[in-house]
Amino acid sequence: MIEQIPVLLVVLPIVGGAVPLVASLVSDRAGWPIATLTLIGQVGLAGLLAWTVGTSGTVSYAVGGFAAPYGIELVVDGLSGAVALLVAVVSLGVLAYAREAGPHSNSFYGLYLLLVAGLTGMTVTGDVFNLYVFLEITGLAAYGLVASGRDASAAVAALKYLIIGTVGASLYLLGVGYLLAATGTLNMADLATKLGEMAAYDSTLVLTAFGLMVGGLTVKVALFPLHTWQPDAYANAPDSVSAFISALVSTVSAYALARLLFSVFTAEFLTAVPVARWALVGLACVSIVAGSALAVSQNSVQRMLAYSSVSQFGLVIAGFAIATPMAVVGATVHLLGHAVMKGGLFAATGIIERETGATTISGYAGMGSRVPLTAFSFSVLSLAMVGVPPAVGFVGKWYIVLGAVNAEIWPVVAVLLASTLLTLAYFARLVERLYFAEATIHAEEGVPEDAPVTDGSGQAVSFGMVAVVVLAAVLAVALTAAVPALEQVLEDTLLPILNQ
Amino acid sequence: MTEFRPILAILVSAVAIPVILSLKGRPNLREGVTLTVAFAKFAIIASMVPGVLNGTEYEFVVGQFATGIELAFSVDPLGLLFGLLASLLWIVTSFYSIGYMRGLDEHAQTRYFASFAASLASAIGVAFASNLLTLFVCYELLTVSTYPLVTHDETDEARAAGRKYLAYTFGGGVAVLGGTVLVFVLAGTTAFTPGGLEGLATADPTLARAAFALLAAGFGVKAALMPMHSWLPDAMVAPTPVSGLLHAVAVVKSGVFGIARVVLDVFGTETMAELGVGLPLAAIAAFTLLTASIIALRQDNLKRRLAYSTISQLSYIVLGLGLLHGQALTGGLLHIPAHAFMKLTLFFCAGAIHVETHTDDISDMAGIGTRMPLTMAAFAVAAAGMAGIPLVAGFVSKWYLVIGALSLDGGLIFAAALLVSGVLNIAYFWPIVYQAYFESPEDHDQKPLLEAPLGGRGDVRADGGSDDDAHDHADESAVPDPQHVDHLGMHREDHEHHGGPPEGGWDDRGWRGGESTWFMLGPILTAATLSLLLGTMPYTAVFLRIVDTIVGNLPGVGV
């Protein structure tokens, strides 16, 4: 039973995603309960899988009984187990938010579950072509979800996302083709052994493949300067979708990038071809600085949060590219922590907009007293993102910096440390306005009755929505306690693949 | 031995935060909670004093924080010194806060008291942290929890000060983080060890120096070492009890305390001497204490003058630490409580004057001794202590500092700096006391003594040019100059009576407490009495015994 879980994790949401479409014949509100049931099952399975991986090591499954390297293999180790669990938990959490926030149509929940399937597939697969398939499933579902807002701007954002995202995926596919030409295999583990033997690490073929695949994934991760789809997509999608994709889509892409680095190209490749590592580290550092600078200059809170992701993923990728066990643990912690924090922040912006109509930085002035619980959670999440200890945002940074100091890459250490202040620059002014400024929007003129409704849903705020935000804030601090356990699991996974 | 008291001392005020917030509509109960918690905190910490003096170390491990680093709290003599001081003065300040906040009918009092409780929880966390990372965690939390107090007024000035405060202290925090990582990488641990970590003594000297520089600079921000001091005078827009307890005791002392931990328990005096980093630290401190004293002469706003005095006095402590000599260390560490008692008195006096007469500028205070005799008497005592006059706490610590400095080769210059600073202290405090009792509003000398920059007359112009840009100056003066902003954010406007004596001069309120409420007078007199106690019976007042224990535990320090 245990070895079938990886494939069940993918099949369950696909099947679950088809049900709402069929159920449309009976009821047009069947989507939410079906999605909830499916995802509760998903969380159970992912939890069981993560526990199994944590206690007894890697789980692998050959799809259809075709053994690797010819068939498709699903492999779950500590890293992918943690990400799969994150995907399941966050998507269930966002459902609690979406119940009131909408959209309510059955097709929305169909797409939602399809996105969960795509993300989980990317996480558990052990095959580079299969990864491409799930990358496209994820992309298509995400384009559809972004477009589910009723505004014209949502459609434009989705189109932009679609074009740029497809270019990224195509680059990745091209890279896969080069790898296949070089080694004749698509299985990750097989590639890892054959890459060094059949094609030299520094051969043009392998380098091109690396460039294309990593380049394609960095589009999906949205590192500067390949981030341009992201702020529009996050800011124009319905709130539930913003919270969902900001928490997971880039996160799983970053995971895929790490998987590519360590399980396909391996740490030896990074050592043999230093230019590859430095290019990635450099890109990450530029992303940290540029993302923060762009975030500071935004007026819309959601766009600011989107640019903040550009910066934070720079931190994550820097950790992966440094590639010492410490740094990779840190990057993983930050990857998981960022998902919780950013999802919670987007969810909070949705609530604040519904309650008060505030969407801009200046509009947030004085809102601390109007929406006390949400504003407080927002502040906690902001500080956690800045890296105020003991929140999880700090722990990730601590490990990454430790890894960078161990590797003695001083300029990177400086950028990593400065990232705290850069993040503070855009979050502090928001928190300051929330609590210490004169309100610019007053209760009576709050939300005009005929305000354009972006996502075709009511303006009410449910208990579930606030609970999700508060839970995210609590998790942002409480996850720190789980870090030692996670580190243990990750080290079992990482030490072999990092050859340390 | 495992013991719950360290964590209990921290949590007792942390737990009170939601309680205080929930009692928003019932102010008496809310302040009751604050007072109860303050007493409980002090009692818990005081109960550990005998044990610690006998060499017991109380330890509580919360859990693993990261590889090889525990989130752990332990009470050693140095931590006890800071913890005992902060919790004792929190009681005094809580009473004073009630008088002050109600006297001014302030807004957002619930947030104020809740933030105060949070600040104290963090401050005690700083005191009892048993390794550098735990200290850093609490240090950052202290920044966050004091931020709402700095911006309390919600005016533009307050927000600007808050921004500056966050930028400076988080900037310092980043440096501390960098230093902590370096120490961890070099030594494999960050646990405080009297005499220093072994790994650092054998580490690459360049990296070790870099680690020290980062840590000293990071903690130096809160310790207001120049040139990282300028957040402190601006933070004076906060209500006076905040300026008193946090910006003269808890927050700034957490910076000094951090430096003390780094010097004594991370690097150790011997490694410091080998690395040669003690002297630069002492030199920066000596520079700061002289320069800040001179700047203080020019300040007309009483709280800003006190702020510069704080900057100067904090550097006494850092100087003592930087000299790496037994008696200088004793003096420096003893100056932590000594300065706290005296400066708290001074701030409380400034706050009482503000509440009662809305006077903030020294030039408006001539003759105020008839209106507020007890307050000004307490002010005189504390000011004398600041200058190092015997019988007040400042004398004892300064005595040890000067002796320590003189017994070192080349220490003469540091001793001279200390003595000159003492003279400057008199120069900026004595006129206040003198004019309060012996001058009248109609007939008094020009204050402050130094109006223009040294060597100039009137406004200084950066390029030395003439008055082509006079219009600009006029425009600028329309913007409230922070010097003339009291904590309500109002600036002195000539058409509106705000500060200074009322028409017809100061009332005579006599010496029996008619000048203010006892909620303010009580704390003022208590703090002044404490500084006298520490000055006359330093051993009985326990603090010197704690300091002796700290210094006695250090290997290789000649006393």
Descriptive overview:
The complex is a heterodimer of chains A (500) and B (559). In chain A, α3 runs antiparallel to α10. Chain A has 17 helices and two strands. Helix content of chain A is 76%, strand content 2%. Chain A folds into two domains: 267 residues, no CATH class; 210 residues, no CATH class. Chain A has 500 residues and is mainly α. Chain A has a two-stranded antiparallel ribbon with strand order 1-2. Chain B is mainly alpha-helical and 559 residues long. Chain B has a domain of 212 residues. Chain B has a two-stranded antiparallel ribbon. The two termini of chain B are 30 Å apart. The relative contact order of chain B is 0.11. The interface between A and B is medium-sized, with 32 and 33 residues. Chain A: One of its GO terms (molecular function) is NADH dehydrogenase (ubiquinone) activity. Chain A: It is a multi-pass membrane protein. Chain A: Its main location: membrane. Chain A: One of its GO terms (biological process) is ATP synthesis coupled electron transport.
Short description:
The complex is a heterodimer of chains A (500) and B (559). Chain A has helices spanning 5-23, 31-56, 78-101, 106-124, 128-146, 152-183, 188-198, 204-221, 229-236, 239-272, 274-296, 301-322, 325-356, 372-386, 392-406, 410-436, 463-498; strands at 59-62, 73-76.
The averaged pLDDT of chain A comes out at 88
Beta-strand proportion of chain A: under 5%
Structural shape of chain A: globular
Low-confidence stretches of chain B: 467-497
Largest β sheet strand count, sense and barrel closure of chain A = 2 strands, antiparallel
Order of helices and strands of chain B: HHHEEHHHHHHHHHHHHHHHHH
